[in-house]
Amino acid sequence: MASKPAVVARGVVKRFGTVVALDGMDLEVQEGTVLGLLGPNGAGKTTMVRILATLLKADAGTAEVAGIDVAKHPNRVRAAIGLTGQYAAVDEYLTGRENVVMVGGLYHLKPAYVRDRADELLDRFGLTDAANRPVKTYSGGMRRRLDLAASLVAKPRILFLDEPTTGLDPRSRMGLWEVIEDLVAEGTTVLLTTQYLEEADQLAERVVVIDRGKVIAAGTSEELKTQVGGDRIEVVVEDPAKLAAAAAALAPISDGASVSDPVERKVSAPVTGGSTVLVDAVRALDEAQVGIADIVLRRPTLDDVFLSLTGHAAEEETQQPDKSNSRRRAR
Ligand SMILES: Nc1ncnc2c1ncn2[C@@H]1O[C@H](COP(=O)(O)OP(=O)(O)OP(=O)(O)O)[C@@H](O)[C@H]1O
Ligand SMILES: [Mg+2]
Question: Whose CA is nearest to atom 26 of ligand 1?
């Protein structure tokens, strides 16, 4: 892994009136890697990204992007970065393709290159059929995808993506992940904000969790999950008399003591190794002749991370934890 930081922030403070949006944020992104900035609504993700992208001035602290001080030389920083905002910023009256090509023009890229790259990106985001229609006829999700395509046309050295997959369907989400992986393979540094541990898991080498404008945890997503207790296998047995046998069968494949709940006929045991452990568990229970009513591998969600780190849930929109990870933000 490269060791030179592409982004460094130290003690960044930002207030909006009486609201302290950033309360001494520290951040470092190594060159050529993806950092996931994870946090609930209002944590300060967008504010941090806007400061790094020179769209907002910090009240205190320092930040450097590509080795350049964002407050002293905003124009030089802008030349090195690409930014996708949380809300799509595209021209309504141009077609999808014209929007992407126009952005390429702003970066002074060769027209032939821009045309090829535009086609490639429009295809990646499923917009080929709509490419020649004015954007005012696009749906919200289509605008979002177009905004992403436009921001990626120039292959910036450092890319800021603010909740890039919010509101995207699964296919476009995967398309974006592929584009990001390609860019990183070519050396781009990415700072990505998200509310989904799953997404940070997929893309980011390192994850920084923030809450109320402060870093509350940092590490790989594996480290964070382990910190909150890691994965657990939960088995519901058919016959409550077999609970002890189930616990004994799971013991060799689990990392620690299991917990049995006679009322729910459930045994829960800590494990590592992902879904292969599930197969091992089914086999072990089968050999012990324990009938299985239900078996799941429960992975920690962002909600679990928050609950464990802060003692409070990740606020409004997480009141009903959704294990499928498919929940979307309301706006
Ligand atoms: N222009 C502004 N004026 C006043 N308050 C603001 C402004 N921008 C942000 N805030 C406040 O600063 C805090 C951090 O907001 P920010 O948008 O950075 O959060 P976020 O982590 O991006 O949230 P979300 O997940 O909802 O996008 C919030 O309390 C927000 O209300
Ligand atoms: Mg935001």
Answer: 41
Q: In Å, how far from its chain's centre is CA 209?
A: 11
- Domains by residue range for the chain, with CATH: 5-223 (3.40.50.300), 231-298 (3.30.70.100)
Q: What is the DSSP letter of 60?
A: E
The answer, yes or no, to whether any atom of ligand 1 lies below 6 A from the CB of 45, is yes
CB-based burial label for 21 (10 Å; 0-12, 13-18, 19+): buried
Tell the residue nearest (CA) to atom 18 of ligand 1: 44
> How confident is the model at residue 67, as a pLDDT?
95
Parallel, antiparallel, or unpaired for β 60-65 and 68-69?
A: antiparallel
Q: Which amino acid is at 314?
A: A
User: What are the CA-CA distances from residue 64 to residues 60, 67, 124 (Å)?
Assistant: 13, 5, 32
Average pLDDT over residues 188-193: 94
Q: Relative to the CA of 210, which ligand 1 atom is closest? A: 21
With both helix axes pointing from N to C terminus, report the angle between 96-106 and 111-124 in degrees, rounded to the nearest 10.
130
Q: Residue 118 in 3-state DSSP?
A: helix
pLDDT tens column, 27-52: 999 999 999 999 888 999 999 999 99
Q: Cα(20) to centroid of ligand 1, in Å?
A: 9
Can you say whether the dihedral through the CA atoms of 118, 120, 125, 129 is positive or negative?
positive
Give the CA count within 13 Å in the CB-facing half-sphere of 17: 0
Q: How far, in Å, is the centroid of ligand 1 from the Cα of 330?
A: 16
Q: Residue 101 belongs to what H/E stretch?
A: helix 96-106
Provide the β-strand partners of residue 15.
20
From atom 24 of ligand 1, which residue's Cα is the shortest distance away?
A: 41
d(CA 318, CA 322): 8
Helix (H) or strand (E) holding 249: helix 243-250
Is the pLDDT score of 331 beyond 50? no
Pick from 81, 63, 80: nearest CA to 72: 63
Residue 13 tokens, joined: 């403070």
pTM (two decimals):
0.77
